[in-house]
Structure formats: C-alpha cells, structure tokens
C-alpha cells in the first residue's frame, strides 16, 4: 500500500499539470517553459515508479519460483 503513494502523487501532479486551467494560468504568468519542464520531470518519475513496481513484482515471481524449485518455502 505505501509503495503506491508515490505513484498516486506523481499521477495526480501529472494530471494537474496537464489541465487546461493550469496551462491557462501558466500562460498568463509566463511560466510555460518551467511548467513543461516540471511536467516532463513528473512524467519521468511516474515512469520510473511504474518500472520499479514491475521489477518488484517480477522479483516476487522469481523468488516464489526459486522457493518452489528448491523445496524451500
């Protein structure tokens, strides 16, 4: 459960950075370049978290397979 919190935060930030209202305010205050860089950073974090989650799941599968094969459980 706790490992899903960073992903949820990154997903929420990504969605907010992509919203029309947020982009409108960014244009109004002239910070679109900074917002785009922030959006790219958040997307990168989101992808890394997804990859880490998949890796963790794969490690559990491999560990379970090894335990079954070695007779240790």
TrEMBL record:
Q: Which residues form the Disease resistance N-terminal domain?
A: 10-66
| Pfam families the record matches | Rx_N (PF18052)
Q: Which GO terms describe its molecular function?
A: nucleotide binding
GO process terms (BP): defense response
Instruction: State the Gene3D superfamilies in the record.
Output: 1.20.5.4130
State the UniProt keywords alphabetically. Answer: Nucleotide-binding, Plant defense, Repeat
Name of the featured protein = Disease resistance N-terminal domain-containing protein
